[in-house]
């Protein structure tokens, strides 16, 4: 067994990489097409890229992308958990825009991979090395703990299972269910329409402006770089679906959603709350996201981070995410 290092995802065969990702059931953020788009059009400042492929003989058995980063934005949450790492270069896996860290591999591979990551971090001049957004209690979490690495809470992501829309509504409290139905009725009366579009037909420049405005409400400035974000979404091609919500033709909400084998990710969204008609554009967008996930046959709804009150009210449960960093 040996570990191969590459400084560009273009040097790695997509079929080799994706075979490991699919066998492990890793999320869309690990697919070669997503990682490739992130290398060509990074959504945050990256000083160097690192990709690891573990092979047993000639067969790839593990893959991991990592990014050398120093910039504070959008890594503010990480530096709140690790203030001693602020302003220092760190080799991190995955990117901040992935909220579900995995190492697509078997457990016995992780120690060898960690050793190679540490040596690579040292060569690249990193002061820190580790993982962000590791689900507490998951396979990676257990493996890192077994390696003696401590974790610090970073954030939560929100998830629920799906079967039918009727079943989803039935799982909610009577008040939440009534609110969703009332909001849908008011939106229809106010002339609201929704449309699901491929990325090449979506109004990505307008959507980017909405996303930037919405992110600022949660102090996530810099999460959607205006010149790069629409090009990145376009590069995702059929990994992404765009939902546009319009009132009399004006864009009032939009979501960029990602899919993998079983999951539907409401990855990012933008909302204009200055509307008439007594409805919530965000609630319209959320309901349409649930319906689209079900139409696409996805059994898991991944609803990202933040906005905990809304998500708890609408039947999602938190998964605690940790950061696991150590000095190089």
UniProtKB/TrEMBL annotation:
Residues 175-312 form the BioF2-like acetyltransferase domain. It comes from the Bacteria. InterPro entries: Acyl_CoA_acyltransferase, BioF2-like_GNAT_dom. It comes from Lentzea albida. This is BioF2-like acetyltransferase domain-containing protein. It holds the Pfam family Acetyltransf_6.
């Amino acid at each position: 067994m040996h570990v191969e290092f590459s400084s560009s995802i273009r040097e790695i065969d997509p079929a080799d990489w994706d075979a490991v990702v699919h066998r492990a059931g890793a999320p869309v953020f690990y697919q070669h097409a997503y990682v490739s788009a992130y290398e060509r059009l990074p959504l945050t400042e990256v000083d160097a890229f690192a990709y690891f492929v573990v092979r047993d003989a000639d067969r790839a058995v593990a893959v991991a992308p990592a990014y050398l980063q120093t910039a504070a934005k959008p890594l503010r949450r990480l530096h709140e958990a690790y203030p001693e790492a602020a302003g220092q270069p760190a080799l991190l896996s995955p990117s901040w825009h992935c909220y579900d860290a995995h190492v697509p591999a078997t457990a016995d591979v992780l120690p060898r991979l960690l050793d190679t990551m540490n040596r690579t971090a040292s060569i690249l001049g990193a002061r820190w090395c580790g993982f962000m957004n590791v689900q507490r209690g998951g396979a990676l979490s257990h493996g890192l703990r077994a390696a003696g690495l401590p974790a610090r809470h970073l954030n939560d992501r929100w998830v629920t299972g799906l079967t039918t829309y009727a079943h989803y509504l039935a799982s909610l409290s009577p008040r939440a269910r009534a609110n969703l139905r009332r909001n849908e009725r008011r939106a229809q009366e106010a002339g609201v329409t929704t449309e699901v579009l491929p990325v090449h037909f979506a109004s990505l420049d307008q959507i980017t402006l909405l996303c930037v405005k919405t992110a600022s409400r949660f102090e996530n400035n810099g999460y959607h770089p205006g010149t790069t974000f629409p090009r990145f979404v376009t590069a995702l091609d059929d990994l992404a679906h765009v939902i546009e919500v319009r009132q009399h033709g004006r864009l009032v909400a939009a979501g960029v959603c990602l899919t993998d084998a079983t999951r539907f990710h409401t990855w990012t969204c933008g909302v204009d709350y200055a509307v008439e008609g007594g409805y919530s554009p965000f609630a319209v967008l959320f309901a349409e996201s649930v319906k689209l996930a079900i139409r696409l046959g996805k059994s898991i709804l991944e609803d990202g981070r933040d906005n905990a009150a809304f998500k708890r009210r609408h039947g999602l449960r938190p998964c605690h995410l940790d950061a696991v960093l150590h000095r190089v």
